[in-house]
Amino acid sequence: MNEIELQNIDEHKISWTCKHTWKRSSINTLWCLLGCSIGDFGTILFFQINEIPFPMLGIMVLAIINGLITSIALETIILLRQMNLKEAFSTAIGMSLISMIAMEVAMNTVDVVFAGGVLVWWIIPFMLLAGFLTPLPYNYYRLKKYNESCH
């Protein structure tokens, strides 16, 4: 490789050691987790309490969809402090669906694998931990990729 090619490779490397970016991406991930878990847990609990005979996979898909909806709604409400409703909603919709879907799938996978898809109190911390850790590196990467700097 010549010097220009090596320089281009170095410019695309991401530093994974920035504490500021880890903190900021962690806070962003926690807000998303709060929004997603409201819709997710609420859906699973609704089917569980009402004993509605519905396939577990169907419940999990609905939980993911509702988690995405509540996450976008919460983010819109948070952004209303900084912008008008239209801009806040557009920003919330534009957030990474990849990150939110990964979060939701991780949470529901933990629930299905360890509790059989039943929402019990002891599984919730593990679901939240999986939901937080799964998208965190991606969220950090996105902050760095779009030139969000450590300052």
What's the arrangement of secondary structure elements?
Blueprint: H1 3-11, H2 19-49, H3 56-79, H4 85-93, H5 97-115, H6 124-133, H7 136-145
Helix pairs in contact: 2-3, 2-5, 2-7, 3-4, 3-5, 5-6
Question: What are the defining features of this structure?
Answer:
single chain, 151 residues, mainly alpha, 7 helices, 0% strand, globular
Per DSSP E runs of 2 or more residues, the count of β-strands stands at: 0
**Coarse morphology:** globular
Question: How many domain regions?
Answer: 1
Mean pLDDT: 87
Helix content: over 70%
- The value of Rg in angstroms is 18 Å
Low-confidence segments:
none
Sequence of secondary-structure elements: HHHHHHH
Give the class from helix and strand content and strand pairing.
mainly alpha
Strand percent estimate: under 5%
Terminal Cα separation, in Å? 33 Å
Q: Could you give a short account of the major beta sheet?
A: none
Total helices: the number is 7
What does this structure look like?
By secondary structure, the protein is mainly alpha-helical. It has one domain. 74% of the residues lie in helices and 0% in strands. The chain has helices at residues 3-11, 19-49, 56-79, 85-93, 97-115, 124-133, 136-145. The radius of gyration is 18 Å and the shape is globular.
Summed up, what is this model?
This protein is an all-alpha fold and 151 residues long. 74% of the residues lie in helices and 0% in strands.
